[in-house]
Specification:
467 residues; 21 helices; mainly alpha; 0% strand
């Protein structure tokens, strides 16, 4: 039973709500530091441009860069502190469920200032609506979509996302139409609903399989600041993939047909969940579940074949795009490594393949569960092998972390918090004009991975995953 006198859910929830409310004006102030975004908005909404430029000049004199960075750090510290306090104690389940929904809908009103990806999503929707071209064969720049292209970062590249992702984004495109701000809100709402969907699936999972871990499991994901800021704040689509991966896991033993279908759906949102496939297949072979394996692979293969058919001529460029993505280097160990050894190609791909083989051998030797080994593989990939680490990538396993043992839970949670604070560190580096300085890059990388590695090896609880 929960001691109502010691239940601090309301206190920490209200503190977090206040911090997220304060983040809204801060995000719009942070916008004023980006001249490219300001001029892009000015092209679309000409009446806004003089005011935005005037505000920018006035705030620059008042220490716009320094003060905004410090306020961001303070707000995220308060939110992270409340989050860790909640993880320490038993709490009221109704409040645990209500507050994250409040966090998400409050953060919807913030400007997506930490990433331009949402504008790329809107641009792709315009490409579909205006030019009706194959987004996997031709980039958005091939279509005369107007000044929005000034606000994007990937306009010369074909879509790296699958047909499922575009299927859902077509709805936000219809709602947003030709209005940029309405389109941004529609895109944010889309991923917010999927975020709530993840919370619902986790709730159902814990209710059925592990009621004693229900409150901690929900807090671990739903109150996490990276989840809130990257979903409702920046509108990233990673949570859609996580939702379908969770459904695949939920139906794994209930219905192999649905499990295979949902895993294929997740891969056709973002390709990263394909790493779960070998673990699931090998596990079924080891357990001699050949009938279930046949059902799983049949539904998986049929949906994947249908997806490839729908992509048409865009399927080959789509695969090329995925390969191209691995040649981008950003705040990662490979980015530091290639600074000294620029001509070494394929090394980290080889290490990734080796890592997969080692993890599959561990599965054969019954060292851990398929889900845990998948999450461990992604975790190691993120901190050591990925060529470009973007701050929101830990969400790939954050939604699965509640189902893991405490050791890996803690490591993933700490990595997610480090990713939030990576933003102001990067701003400070840019402010000091040290973006090309290998020492500063190394410090930022260590600030990202060191706390997570410490959390992993400091935790003595070796409990197993729930799946």
């Amino acid at each position: 039973m929960i001691d109502k006198k010691n239940d601090k859910t309301l206190i920490y929830g209200l503190i977090s709500v206040l911090a997220w409310i304060l983040y809204i004006p801060l995000s719009w102030i942070l916008l004023l530091r980006d001249q490219t975004l300001i001029h892009g908005l000015g092209e679309i909404y000409p009446r806004l441009l003089p005011g935005l430029l005037a505000w920018r000049e006035n705030l620059l004199h008042l220490g716009l860069n320094t003060i905004a960075t410090l306020v961001f750090i303070a707000l995220m510290f308060v939110i992270a502190w409340s989050y860790f306090q909640m993880l320490k104690r038993e709490n009221n389940i109704k409040k645990i469920l209500i507050f994250p929904i409040v966090f998400l809908f409050v953060t919807l009103f913030s400007f997506p200032v930490l990433s331009t990806d949402i504008f790329d999503y809107v641009l792709t929707n315009e490409q579909v609506a205006v030019c009706r071209t194959n987004i996997w064969a031709l980039p958005p720049s091939s279509c005369p979509t107007g000044p929005l292209i000034l606000m994007t970062s990937w306009s010369n590249i074909t879509s790296p996302y699958g047909i499922v992702n575009q299927f859902f984004y077509n709805f936000s495109g219809i709602i947003g139409g030709k209005d940029l701000l309405l389109s941004v809100v529609a895109n944010k709402l889309l991923v917010t609903f999927f975020g709530i969907g993840v919370i619902i699936v986790l709730y159902k999972f814990f209710k059925e399989y592990s009621p004693n871990n229900l409150t901690r499991g929900l807090i671990l994901f739903a109150w996490n600041p990276l989840f809130i800021i990257e979903t409702a704040g920046n509108g990233h689509n990673d949570i859609i993939m996580v939702f379908f991966v969770l459904l695949a896991i939920y139906f794994w033993k209930k219905s192999p047909i649905l499990s295979g279908f949902f895993l294929a759906v997740s891969i056709q949102t973002k390709f990263m969940s394909v790493f779960l496939l070998p673990f699931v297949v090998l596990y079924m072979v080891l357990k001699r579940q050949f009938k279930q394996l046949f059902e799983f692979l049949t539904s998986f293969g049929l949906f994947l074949f249908l997806s490839i058919w729908i992509m048409g001529e865009g399927f080959v460029p789509y695969l090329h795009r995925l390969i191209f993505g691995s040649s981008i280097y950003w705040q990662s160990f490979p980015s530091l490594f290639q600074h000294f050894f620029p001509n070494i190609k394929g090394l980290f791909l080889g290490l990734l393949v080796t890592l997969l083989i080692v993890q599959l051998i561990r599965l054969i030797r019954h060292k851990d569960s398929p889900l845990s080994l998948y999450c461990q593989t992604i975790f190691i990939y993120l901190i050591l092998l990925i060529s470009a680490f973007w701050n929101w990538y830990p969400i790939w396993i954050l939604g699965l972390a509640p189902l893991l043992g405490k050791k890996w839970q803690n490591a993933i949670v700490v990595l997610s918090i480090s990713s939030v604070f990576l933003y102001p560190l990067r701003w400070i580096m840019l402010r000091l004009n040290k973006q090309e300085d290998i020492l500063f890059q190394s410090v930022i990388y260590l600030c990202l991975i060191a706390p997570a590695i410490w959390a992993l090896f400091n935790e003595k609880d070796n409990s197993q995953a729930l799946v």
